Amino acid sequence: MVKFIIGCVLGLLVGLGGGYYAFVGFPNSSDRPGQPIKPPDPNTPTNGVAQITIGQDFFTNVLDTIFRDMRSPTFDLDRGNGSSAGSGCENRITVLQQGSGTTTTVEFKDGRITAPLALEGSYNSLVGCLKFTGAADANFELRYDPADRSVYGIVMVERVSIDGVNPIFASLITPVVQSTLNSRVNPIKLVNGSQLDIGLPVESAKGTLNGKVQDVRAEIKDGALNLFVNYGFNGAPAVPPAAQ
Question: What digits encode the pLDDT tens for the residues 155-207?
């Protein structure tokens, strides 16, 4: 579960392993594995359900550590005009802890996971190197794929504001920044089904208790993310050692 928590944060900020998508805006539906994770069903029995609660303060501490002890997340913009090598224009975007009146954080509010992001960067345009600062507002969608029993995250940047350049040029940079943030991180596999599966040897019973994930539900409530993992259990007898 620690891997899941760290994955949520790094997926929002650092996940550079996603594919390259030449589009502006939200990821296409074909790039989103599985289905959106639904809220818990009050009519479903709770036996076999494990609840995991992650407070917003946990994410704040993780982000503070990343910005204090590591390099600020930096990656190439999706589009630029020519190579920036030797030009002094890196054609990159960097996520900052603070800037443009924004603090980079993860927030649980109104039933959603949101992430305001402080940014700075440079864009190698036809009119020269445009250095800018700014901010972005992103939503974070959780999805569950029953095919591999894995939880995925999708970052969806809704708004980008650019400072420090002429508004005409800012209108050129804004869609590139949005496209970069959406394309570089999606989809993010936050946790494999095998990481949530249970295999517990019970020596006194001469067997193993197995639990397989059947469904995952989630809700944002009282400043916390509550995950509800529904298990199917079975017991298997211990395999005797091979006869000598």
Answer: 889 899 999 899 988 998 999 999 888 887 778 787 777 778 888 899 888 89
Query: Rounded distance, CA 152 to CA 33, Å?
Result: 7
Q: Please check whether residue 170 is in contact with residue 132, taking contact to mean a CB–CB distance below 8 angstroms.
A: yes
Tokens describing residue 201:
């040897």
Which phi and psi (to 5°) does residue 118 adopt? -90, 140
The pair of three-digit structure tokens given for residue 134, joined into one six-digit string = 């700014």
- First CA to last CA distance, the chain: 41
Ordered alpha helix ranges (H), the chain:
2-13, 56-69, 167-185, 193-196
Q: What is the DSSP letter of 208?
A: E
Which pair of tokens denotes residue 107?
A: 């927030």
* CB crowding 81-113: b at 16 or more within 10 Å, else e: eeebeeeebbbbbbbbeebbebebbbbbeeeeb
The pair of structure tokens assigned to 234 is: 């079975």
Q: What are phi and psi for residue 143, nearest 5 degrees?
A: -135, 145
Which amino acid is located at 234 in the chain?
N
Q: Single out the residue of 97, 106, 121 nearest to residue 174, CA to CA.
A: 121
Longest dimension (CA), the chain: 81
Residue 168, exposed/middle/buried by CB under 10 A (0-12, 13-18, 19+)? exposed
Tokens of 215: 């469904």
Q: How confident is the model at residue 58 (pLDDT cuts 50, 70, 90)?
A: confident
Residue 148 has which token pair?
């591999």
* Residue in this structure with the two tokens 């900020």, named with its chain if needed: 13
C-alpha–C-alpha distance, residues 186 and 193, integer Å: 19
